[in-house]
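The material for today's practical consists of a large collection of protein records. An example says more than a description, so a record of this kind follows:
***
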Amino acid sequence: MASNMYLYWGSGSVACWKAMIALEEKGFGGYPNKLISFSKQEHKAEDVMKLNPRGQVPVFKDGDIVLNDSVAICDYLERRYGNQGTQLIPSDVKELANVLQRMYEVSNVEGNILKELAIYLFYTKKEDQDEALLKEKFEKGRAELQIWEGYMQKMGSGAFIASKSFSMADVYFFPYLAYFVRLGLNLSKYPALSEYYNRIKDRASLKASWPPHWLKEPPKIDSMSQI
C-alpha cells in the first residue's frame, strides 16, 4: 500500500512531521516521498502547486486521493487504515474523550508559544525587540507549558500525553515539544514533560521521521531557554 503513497515534506516543519509520524505508526515506512527545500522555494514549484494551490507542505497522495493539511492527513490515515499499525484513536470512551481534547488543545501550544514567542524571536531583530512585550510572551509561553506539565503529571510516569498508549494526541504534541527543545527549552523546569520527552524520543516512528537537518546542524538560537 505504501507504494501507492507519496509525500512532499520539509525538514523541521512541525506540520510535515506530524504526518510522517502518523504514516510510520500506521506501518507505511518507506513510502515514496520528496524532501523539498524551503530556502529554494520548492514548495512553490509546479509539482507542488498542481496538488496544493496554497503552495504549502505537507502534500500527501494515496492513489488518486490528495490531502494538503497535516490534520486531514492524520485523520484520513486513522480512519482509512484504522485496523493497521498503531491504533491512534482509542476505542475506550474516556480515553477517546481525553485524546480528542488534547489533540485540539495543541492549537494553544502553536498559538501561545510558536506564533507568539518563537516567531517573534526569529523575525524581530534583537535591537527592535520590546523587552516588556517579550517578557509578556515568555510568561504566556511558560503558563502554556505549565498546563501541559500538569497534564503529564496527572497521567503519571510511563503514560503518554493523553492516554496509557501512544495516540494521535502524541502525534500532534510531541513535534512542538521537540522543536522547542531544539530552540533551547530547558526541560528540567518541567520534570514530567522531561520524562515524557526522553522516554519516547527514541520511539521507532519518531526516529524514522526525525528532521534530518536537526541531526546535522546545531540550533540557530537558544532564546527558548528562558521559557
The first strand starts at residue 5 and ends at 10.
